[in-house]
UniProtKB/TrEMBL annotation:
Protein name, as recorded: RING-type E3 ubiquitin transferase
GO cellular component: nucleus
InterPro entries to which the protein is assigned, alphabetical: 6-blade_b-propeller_TolB-like, NHL_repeat, TRIM-NHL_E3_ligases, Znf-RING_euk, Znf_RING, Znf_RING/FYVE/PHD, Znf_RING_CS
Keywords assigned by UniProt, alphabetized: Ligase, Metal-binding, Repeat, Zinc, Zinc-finger
Domain called RING-type: residue spans: 17-63
């Protein structure tokens, strides 16, 4: 009973604004907003604390001052509200805890080797990518400098990308990838652009043409970028000479997708996998669908939450996707707080949980050159690196 009470209390704390004690909602005055210090308030309280001028406010918890323009949407809470749906189910059941962790134990040999970041170092991280040549990791998050670069040993090598109005400033990063020629490429939801930097943080290119809301991205071995546009329902291939800062071509390669976000490219076959976020129908919660395309962009497999539910006894809501070096599709599931292997495109989908313990809200996924699995956990604002 004590454990249940603790869980209820955690849920209360998570879903309520700690100033007005109203439950957060997806829109209006109840929408959760991050302050630069990392604390979260509803939009109404941000406005009230900012006073009639709405210029400056002081965090009620740590007293750090900031401007209203420095606040931003709290993506993990908004995604959690999306999973819970309008009926407002409980957090434990939405995250699959009530079944005692439905995903089975992780296969022998995949162990947590390193954990980086944490609250204060990273703020609501949204994307992670690995440089296959140098072993460096790039993480996009909502802190003061939006991109952190970590070395293979876990030390933070570089921070760059401040919020501002200069051409290469980053307002709200949604995802990040690293090209084989060593450039960090970011989707910026704040001004609906794609921005590229070198590892020192120098901006080399900003592409703004024609995107509605660029979201997920991944680099091919040839340093092309495959990119989703969530609002346009499209997939783009972007070709550029990043060293010279010149865009060569930005071509739509697929349309009529439904809110595509996460995307990954197989480094061996060139296959592309996309996660669509389907809108709720009737009383049903919203769900996700995984679509796999060949290198020629022919649809070769798809599976939605309902179909996966026939194989797996719990609702699955995927947020991130990657290919391992054998070409298998790997996804994160925020309902069971797990990382799951769905198999190769030709055997899709099998169901093999890779990590089923120790994650709270996995939103990002990548593999390093030595095949370590990197999971971005926005629940505790950390990067977790697993190896066999």
């Amino acid at each position: 009973a004590a454990a249940a009470a603790e869980e209820d209390e955690a849920e209360l704390n998570l879903l309520e604004c700690r100033v007005c004690f109203e439950r957060y909602g997806p829109g209006g005055q109840r929408r959760p907003r991050n302050l630069p210090c990392g604390h979260v308030l509803c939009r109404g309280c941000v406005g009230a604390l900012g006073g009639s001028e709405r210029r400056r406010l002081e965090c009620p918890f740590c007293r750090r001052a900031c401007g209203s323009a420095e606040t931003s949407d709290c993506l993990p809470l908004l995604q959690l509200l999306e999973v819970l749906g309008p009926a407002g189910g409980s957090v434990p059941s939405a995250l699959g805890r009530s079944g005692g962790g439905a995903a089975g134990p992780a296969p022998a040999g995949l162990g947590l080797r390193l954990s980086l970041g944490g609250w204060g170092s990273l703020v609501n991280p949204t994307g992670v990518a690995a440089c296959r040549r140098s072993g460096r990791l790039a993480v996009a998050h909502d802190g003061k400098k939006k991109i952190h670069v970590f070395g293979p040993s876990g030390s933070c090598l570089q921070r760059f990308g401040e919020r501002g109005d200069a051409g290469n400033d980053i307002k709200y990063p949604l995802d990040v990838t690293v090209t084989s020629d060593g450039h960090v490429v970011v989707t910026d939801g704040g001004d609906r652009s794609v921005k590229a930097f070198d590892f020192e943080g120098r901006g080399v290119l900003a592409v703004r043409e024609g995107f509605c809301l660029p979201w997920g991205l991944d680099a091919t071995p040839e340093s092309e970028i495959i990119l989703t546009d969530s609002e346009a329902g499209a997939l783009y291939r972007l070709t550029a000479d990043f060293r010279k800062g010149k865009l060569k071509k930005c071509q739509m390669i697929r349309s009529q997708l439904i809110s595509p976000r996460g995307v990954a490219v197989s480094q061996t076959s060139g296959a592309v996998v996309v996660i669509e976020h389907l809108k709720a129908q009737g009383l049903n919660n919203s769900s996700t669908r995984v679509k796999i395309f060949s290198a020629e962009m022919d649809l070769i497999g798809q599976m939605d939450s309902f179909g996966l539910n026939l194989i797996f006894p719990s609702k699955i809501y995927t947020t991130a996707v990657a290919f391992d070096k054998e070409g298998r599709v790997i996804v994160t599931d925020i309902c069971s707080q797990a990382v799951i292997c769905l198999g190769k495109p030709e055997e899709f989908p099998i169901f093999n949980p890779l990590i089923s313990h120790g994650l709270s809200y996995p939103v990002g996924l990548t593999y390093t050159a030595n095949n370590s699995l990197v999971v971005l956990d926005s629940g505790d604002h950390s990067i977790k690196i697993y190896s066999s």
